[in-house]
Amino acid sequence: MYICLEGIDGSGKSTQIVLLEKWLNDCGHDVLRIFEPTDSSIGKLIREMLRNPKAEEEDFQKTLALLFAADRMVLMDTIKVSEESNNVVISDRCFYSSIVYQNDAGWLYEINKFIRKPDIVILLDLDVDNALERCEGNDSFENRAFLEKIRKKYLKLAEENDFFVINANNGINKVHDDIKRVISPKIGRCI
Ligand SMILES: Nc1ncnc2c1ncn2[C@@H]1O[C@H](COP(=O)(O)OP(=O)(O)OP(=O)(O)O)[C@@H](O)[C@H]1O
Ligand SMILES: [Mg+2]
């Protein structure tokens, strides 16, 4: 079982994945917790490139998209081995982040065509006002417009791909309960 948490910055992915791992462990499941970009050398290069002032440029974005796909490809073997030992794999972001943050969806699907898609995707849907508040983000018109655009792309993908959409504006415990409610019926042993 491969479960992915998606959502805009500040939506609570990193907060919730820790709670999710603990809950799954308490239910007797072994868990592999992963994140993208990974901490492989490709992942490290991605993080470094994201800090580059040129990161917004089109060619740079294409290079990043390829690196994200490569970084993800390296993860596939880890996921496979882990699932063979019956671990539940939970991931902070996955393939769909590439689709919402980068352009040219057709090409992105192509370069990610060997990537295993998660069995369950949970979208933590957060209002942009709350995202800016939580991350003390840059409240400029451009940044707001960017976050709105990403949020809309996520919601569209969610509809097209049957993600579970959870209202991430609620408190941490309520969001955790909602995530448990989605996963319980699929996973066994957890109630
Ligand atoms: N439900 C919530 N209500 C209020 N604050 C929250 C909630 N969930 C998370 N936070 C807080 O919001 C901030 C961002 O949360 P978190 O780091 O989990 O988001 P994220 O989705 O992982 O963001 P990023 O994509 O930037 O890594 C943290 O300070 C966290 O404590
Ligand atoms: Mg995070």
Textual characterization of the structure:
This protein has a single domain, classed as Rossmann fold (3-Layer(aba) Sandwich), CATH 3.40.50.300. It has 191 residues and is α/β, with parallel strands linked by helices. The protein has a five-stranded parallel beta sheet with strand order 2-3-1-4-5, with helices on both faces. It is built from eight helices and five strands. The chain binds adenosine-5'-triphosphate and magnesium ion (MG). The site of adenosine-5'-triphosphate has 12 residues, from helix 1 and helix 8. Magnesium ion binds next to helix 1.
Topology:
Blueprint: E1 2-6, H1 13-26, E2 31-35, H2 41-50, H3 58-84, E3 88-92, H4 95-101, H5 105-111, E4 120-125, H6 128-135, H7 141-161, E5 164-167, H8 172-187
Parallel strand pairs: 1-3, 1-4, 2-3, 4-5
Helix pairs in contact: 1-8, 2-3, 4-7, 6-7
Concise account of the structure shown:
The protein has 191 residues and is α/β, with parallel strands linked by helices. Strands 2-3-1-4-5 form a five-stranded parallel sheet, sandwiched between helices. 58% of the residues lie in helices and 13% in strands.
Highlighted features:
191 residues; Rossmann fold; binds adenosine-5'-triphosphate
Helix fraction bin: 55-70%
Spatial gap, N to C terminus: 17 Å
Over the alpha carbons, how many angstroms does the gyration radius reach?
16 Å
Q: Total helix count?
A: 8
CATH topology: Rossmann fold
Report the oligomer: single chain
Query: In CATH, what is the homologous superfamily?
Result: P-loop containing nucleotide triphosphate hydrolases
Structural class: alpha/beta
At the first level of CATH, the class is: Alpha Beta
